[in-house]
Each structure stands twice: as C-alpha cells, then as structure tokens.
Amino acid sequence: MDKTIDDKILARASATGPRRVIGVGTLGGLGLLLLWLALTQPPANLLWLVFLIVLGVAALWVAQIMWRATKRELLLTDEALTDSSGAVIARMADVVKVDRGAFALKPSNGFALTLREPGKRAWQPGLWWRTGRRVAVGGVTAARDTKPMADIISVLVMRRDGELPTEE
Questions:
Q1: Whole-number Å distance between alpha carbons of 89 and 28
Q2: pLDDT tens for each residue of 61-74
Q3: Cα torsion at 28, 29, 34, 38 (round to 10°)?
Q4: How many other C-beta atoms are found inside a 10 Å radius of the C-beta of residue 47?
Q5: Please, are residues 125 and 69 in contact by the beta-carbon 8 Å criterion?
C-alpha cells in the first residue's frame, strides 16, 4: 500500500484465522448436514425435502461468500470507514452515534453505527452489514481491533460535533 495512504489509516480490523475457520466451518457444516439429512432420511412430504435442500444449499452458498468477505480488512480514516476492496461502509460525516454496549444490536466483538442518512443495503458476512441508517461491524473480527476502532470513531464524532477540542 502507498505510504501516504498508509499514514492516513487510523485503525485496522480484520478477521482472525481461527474465528474465520470456525464461522465458515459452522455454516458449511450446517449446509452439509442438511443436505445429508435430505438424502439419507428424506421426509415424507415433498415440501420438507425441498426446504431441507434449499436451506442446505443456501448455507453452503453463504459459507463461500463469508470465506471471500473475511479476506478483506476494515480501514478507518478521518473521512470514512472502508474495506480493503474500496467499498465505503460509512462516511464519518454521516455518523451520528457509535454503540458497542452489551445490549446493542451488533455482531460479536463489534459495534454499531447510526447514520444521518440511510445507505444502500450491503452485507459482507462475518465482517459488516448495512441496512437503512444502521451499520454493524464485527463478527469474526477480534475485539482487540474493533474496540479501539469504535473508540476512535466516537472521538471523531465528538470532535466534529464540538464536544471535544480540536488539535492545534
């Protein structure tokens, strides 16, 4: 990565190897188990058989999407939270609130953002999702990466709103 771009990055978060394998393995295992069940002990009702097959294939499909998504890294700059593919997750100017409390609707080891304006729906399983004004970050990421990232975003929002003095 370019040195000037690297200097602008305030925080990074990525999926840890063991969490990534466990998350994808669980989804893949569920898909295989459902397909195995449909083949070895098919239900008498054809609708239930179709349901098991569709659910099994869907779980395998999401597992492969998660495997690709969790290769990405989350990057925080003064301007935006992005992923390493260049997708903008949230612009700092749009962030209203950061929530990482125990009862927040957020992924494991992550945090949630509330935005001023609704964004386009997007989902990178195990890494982040956005629907309406809500953005959630985390899942297979390590808390050691996402907690400081949430803290930095909180400081950026408070500084922008005049609740903290700016650097001179």
A1: 27
A2: 999 999 999 999 99
A3: 100
A4: 8
A5: yes
> What pTM was estimated for this model as a whole?
0.80
User: In the chain, what are the domain boundaries?
Assistant: 11-69, 73-160
* SS3 call for 132: strand
Q: List, as one string, the DSSP characters of 49-104.
A: HHHHHHHHHHHHHHHHHHHHHTTSEEEE-SSEEEETTS-EEEEGGGEEEEE--TTS
How far apart are alpha carbons 30 and 107 in whole angstroms? 20
Does domain 73-160 fall under CATH 2.30.29? My reply is yes
Give how far the C-alpha of residue 18 lies from the chain's centroid of Cα atoms, to the nearest Å. Answer: 16
pLDDT digits over 95-117, tens only? 999 988 777 778 888 899 999 99
